[in-house]
Design a protein that fits this description.
This is DUF7745 domain-containing protein. The relative contact order is 0.13. This protein has two domains: about 80 residues, no CATH class; about 30 residues. The longest helix is centred in the last third of the chain and has 18 residues. It is mainly α and about 120 residues long. A three-stranded antiparallel sheet has the order 1-2-3. The radius of gyration is 16 Å and the shape is globular. The chain contains six helices and three strands. It starts with 9 loop residues before the first helix and ends in a 6-residue tail after the last helix.
Length: about 120
C-alpha cells in the first residue's frame, strides 16, 4: 500500500506563514539560481504593517532563518528555509539560542582582537 504525501508548494507555505493571498505571494516570488525565494523587503514590510500580530511573529523568525541562519541569495529568503520553518514546532523556536551563540561568538572575537566570526 502506498501513501500519497501532499507536500505544500512554496506559495502555499508562504501563504500559510504570512496570511497573505495567493496573488500577493505569487507577485513576490522570484527565481534565484536553482531555487525560488522571496525578497526580504516584502517580509520586512509585513513585519511592520501586517494587521495580524501573530502573523508578524511568524514572519519575523522566517526572516531571521532566511537572512542570518541559512542565507543563500543575498537579500532574499529561500524556499528551503520555508520547508524548515514549516517543520519546526511553533511553540519552540531556536532563535534565542541562535542569537545568544552569535552574541557570544562576536564577543569572543572582539576580546581576542580577531575580526572573524566563529
Amino acid at each position: 500500500m502506498t501513501r500519497v504525501v501532499n507536500v505544500p508548494t512554496f506559495s502555499k507555505k508562504l501563504m500559510n506563514v504570512t496570511g497573505m493571498s495567493e496573488q500577493w505571494v505569487a507577485a513576490r516570488i522570484k527565481q534565484k539560481g536553482d531555487g525560488k525565494c522571496i525578497p526580504w523587503k516584502s517580509l520586512k514590510d509585513l513585519i511592520l504593517t501586517h494587521p495580524d500580530v501573530s502573523k508578524r511573529l511568524d514572519v519575523f523568525p522566517l526572516s531571521i532563518y532566511g537572512l542570518i541562519v541559512f542565507p543563500k541569495a543575498l537579500g532574499h529568503v529561500d524556499e528551503v528555509v520555508t520547508d524548515l520553518f514549516n517543520r519546526l514546532d511553533k511553540r519552540v523556536t531556536p532563535i534565542p539560542i541562535i542569537l545568544a551563540k552569535t552574541f557570544r561568538s562576536l564577543s569572543a572575537c572582539r576580546k581576542a582582537g580577531e575580526g572573524r566570526f566563529i
